[in-house]
Write a structure and sequence with these properties.
eight-stranded parallel β-barrel; 194 residues; 7 helices; TIM Barrel; alpha/beta; 18% strand; 31% helix
Length: 194
C-alpha cells in the first residue's frame, strides 16, 4: 500500500510536521498555497533534510518543484505539462479525464468518500468499475477523499496502489499509529474485481 499525506495548508508547525515526517509515510504532497515561492522552497528543503527517503510532491508550483528536484501535483485548472519534464501528479475527478491524464506518473481519484466541499463521492463500487476498465499498467492511482483507516478496507483493487489522506493524518495525535492502522486495514481488505 502506498500512503500519501497531503499537507493541510497551515504552514510549518515544527512539532506537527516532525510527527508526520516520522510516521512511516511513503510520500508527502506539500500543498501550502499561502506561501510564496521562497518560503515554500525553504519548507520543502526542510522536509527533504529531515526525511530524505520520503517521496515528495509540491502542489501547483512548477518553479519550486524544479528547484527542489521533486514531483509536481498539477491541480485541476493547471495547464498541461510534458510528463518528461518531471514526475507529474494530477487529480482525476471523473472517468472522462482518464484519456488526457493517463500519461501522468500519479493520479489522485477524488473524492472517493464524502469530503467537505468536494462534491458527490465516487464510492467503492464506482471506483472498482473504473479500475476494472483500465489497462494493467499506467499511472499510479491513489484514492482520495474522506480517507480514514476503516474506509480503505473495501477499496483494495489490483489497479489501486493506495490512498492519500489529509485530516486522518494531520489531525491525529499519533500519526504513526494511524499510518500503521491504514496499512493493517488495507491488508485486511479484499481485492475488488480486476
Amino acid at each position: 500500500m502506498h500512503l500519501l499525506a497531503i499537507s493541510p495548508g497551515t504552514g510549518w508547525e515544527a512539532a506537527r510536521w516532525e510527527r508526520m515526517l516520522g510516521a512511516g509515510l511513503d510520500a508527502l504532497l506539500v500543498r501550502e498555497k499561502q506561501l510564496e515561492a521562497g518560503p515554500l522552497l525553504d519548507l520543502v528543503r526542510r522536509v527533504q533534510d529531515r526525511a530524505p527517503g520520503l517521496e515528495l510532491w509540491v502542489a501547483g508550483r512548477l518553479d519550486v518543484a524544479l528547484a527542489a528536484g521533486c514531483g509536481l501535483h498539477a491541480p485541476e485548472a493547471y495547464p498541461d505539462l510534458d510528463p518528461a519534464l518531471l514526475p507529474l501528479s494530477r487529480p482525476l475527478h471523473g472517468e472522462d479525464q482518464w484519456p488526457g491524464r493517463r500519461g501522468a506518473f500519479q493520479l489522485l481519484v477524488s473524492p472517493v468518500h464524502a469530503a467537505p466541499g468536494k462534491g458527490e463521492p465516487w464510492g467503492a463500487a464506482r471506483l472498482h468499475r473504473f479500475l476494472d476498465g483500465l489497462p494493467a499498467r499506467g499511472p499510479r492511482l491513489l484514492a482520495l477523499g474522506g480517507m480514514h483507516p476503516a474506509a480503505v478496507t473495501a477499496l483494495r483493487h489490483p489497479r489501486l496502489a493506495g490512498v492519500a489522506a489529509i485530516r486522518a493524518l494531520w489531525e491525529a495525535a499519533d500519526p504513526q499509529r494511524v499510518v500503521a492502522e491504514f496499512r493493517t486495514r488495507w491488508a485486511e481488505g479484499r481485492p475488488g474485481p480486476g
